[in-house]
Design a protein that fits this description.
single chain, 169 residues, alpha+beta, Immunoglobulin-like, six-stranded mixed sheet, three-stranded antiparallel sheet, 2 helices, 9 strands, 36% strand
Length: 169
């Protein structure tokens, strides 16, 4: 059995301090500790990281140009929202079926942008999305076919105002 002295009584709390303020302060202190570990510098992927990402996706299989059409403007004003569309020439049956479409880039913080897995009921191998680009760079789309082959297309994009960049204060 509890008595009134065992319960929290806001009348007896220090002035201006509530349980909500205490919890919020503790959370902010923890977040500040984590952020002090993370470097706040400009971070971009390197061509070597892009090559490694492609090798990871393809397991070392040669990527052939063709069959994939990457539609993205070659000149974009802002890298914060860049529309792009990827389509693959495929009958979507048997060995010609597209299992996945991957979009990669060479200068964002990470080379991976998006991977779309296409199930057996997909009628067409295409999708459209918006991506962020940190700087002028090459964007690559790779299609993974059911027969184990990989096809690609790439577009060099000039970005006048980059996104995905953290500058040191």
């Amino acid at each position: 059995m509890s008595t009134t002295s065992d319960r929290y009584d806001p009348k007896h709390a220090p002035a201006g301090l509530s349980r909500r303020h205490l919890i919020a302060g503790a959370g902010a202190a923890g977040l500040a500790g984590v952020l002090s570990i993370v470097p706040l510098s400009s971070v971009t992927a390197t061509p070597a990281e892009l090559k490694t990402a492609i090798e990871t996706i393809t397991s070392g299989t040669t990527v052939k140009p063709g069959r994939v059409k990457l539609e993205i403007a070659p000149l974009v004003e802002s890298g914060f929202t860049v529309p792009c569309k990827v389509s693959v020439e495929s009958s979507m049956t048997g060995a010609q079926r597209v299992n996945a479409i991957h979009i990669l880039n060479e200068k964002n913080p990470q080379p991976y942008v998006i991977s779309a897995l296409l199930g057996p009921r997909a009628a067409r191998a295409e999708f459209a999305t918006r991506i962020r680009l940190a700087d002028s760079q090459t964007v690559i789309a790779i299609a993974e076919m059911a027969d184990g082959s990989f096809w690609s297309d790439q577009v060099k994009v000039v970005v006048t105002l980059g996104a995905c960049v953290e500058e040191a204060l």
